[in-house]
Amino acid sequence: LVPRLQPFTSTIFAEMTALAVRHDAVNLGQGFPDTDGPAGMLDAAKNALFGGANQYPPGPGRPELRAAIARHRLRYGTDYDPDTEILVTAGATEAIAASLLALTQAGDEVIVIEPYYDSYAAAVAMAGAERRVVGLVERDGRFALDIEDLRAAVTERTRAILINSPHNPTGTVFTRAELEAVAALCVTHDLIAITDEVYEHLVFDDAEHFPLATLPGMRERTVSISSAGKTFNCTGWKIGWVCASPELVAAVKAAKQFITFVSGGPLQPAVAHALDHELPWVEDLRTSLQDKRDRLAAGLAEAGFAVRPTAGTYFICVDVRPLGFEDAAELAWELPERVGVAAVPVKVFTDHPEEWKHLLRFAFCKRNEVIDEAVTRLRKLR
Ligand code: PMP
Ligand code: GLN
């Protein structure tokens, strides 16, 4: 393995899920739902499978899916041309990797917000670029973006900034003011923004998702990325997409076409159906996830953890110190065997493990009885 990929030999999700399976643990580690997406979407996939949609789709994605993505994006007031400004990818993961491969290279710096989704660091490394990490700070009861820290991270080598909101793993949803500050920096320093919006529909209470691309000066410099997995409970389908200017989409496509070329042929029309017709189903998902968040948060508090607030995504972070633990990773490794629950330590998503070592992430995209069983088991930690 080449040196630049040596830090990335395994993922925490694969490791924790394997450990959960070994100990028959309730898996609140890897974030994936335990129920299916809308029946209409599954039917559409079945019809496509039996209707002959089983060969290569067009390189940029099936036209009806690109049109549906464009219509969906209009909800934010941004208009993308399905022919030149939208690209279907193998999940958001490929979109992120292809964007970094296409737009950054050795000598470039990419600003990444910490804690960061694990594929960001690996994809920056594959591109040969360097990550420059800016940590979220706990402020006013949430994990906030410190604009001064962000400003200080920009150098003459900065080429791009990766922004994930709603944010995995903290559950933070960036405010309009935070995003405006990011936008101002991008415009001033002529940076490309790559936004990971896979949890765009999973926002709670009065939180609202603002795509960075909607802010002045950002439409032409932002690669907006999302995916069907989280919105329609189909994480295994790996249908994602990029919305950006024709120049940026052409660049991302140049990389993407030699990674997978295309993927998910019969699933693409089903996701098109879902984007056009299943948003009421997504609204029900959102409300049920908000209840699950409250259910798990209450249970984790009862079990003795200090629970951090979650405004979006399907993750909750807790501080393990009130239970007498110092390092959440040590706890995470023994938790499946000790009480039969799996969770993910936040420090693995950072370059500063000491600062983040007390936080543990739990996923709540599970049936209520599964959440309740996990809580019952976690109570034994006291
Ligand atoms: N970004 C974030 C923040 C995620 O949590 C995930 C995984 N769920 C992804 C990207 C990957 O999305 P996909 O499965 O569509 O590749
Ligand atoms: N995005 C999911 C999570 O954060 C897992 C994705 C994966 O397994 N790579 O839990």
From TrEMBL:
BP-aspect Gene Ontology terms:
antibiotic biosynthetic process
Superkingdom per UniProt? Bacteria
Which keywords annotate this record?
A: Aminotransferase, Antibiotic biosynthesis, Pyridoxal phosphate, Transferase
Q: Which cofactor does it need?
A: pyridoxal 5'-phosphate
Q: Where is the secretion signal located?
A: none
For the keyword Transferase, the answer is yes
Q: Which GO terms describe its molecular function?
A: kynurenine-oxoglutarate transaminase activity; pyridoxal phosphate binding
Q: One GO cellular component from the entry?
A: cytoplasm
Q: Does the keyword Isomerase apply?
A: no
Domain Aminotransferase class I/classII large, chain residue ranges per copy? 24-378
Please report which protein family the annotation says this sequence is part of: Belongs to the class-I pyridoxal-phosphate-dependent aminotransferase family.
PANTHER family reported for this sequence? FI04487P
The name this protein carries in UniProt is Aminotransferase
Organism of provenance:
Amycolatopsis orientalis (Nocardia orientalis)
**What taxonomic classification does the UniProt entry list for its organism?**
Bacteria, Bacillati, Actinomycetota, Actinomycetes, Pseudonocardiales
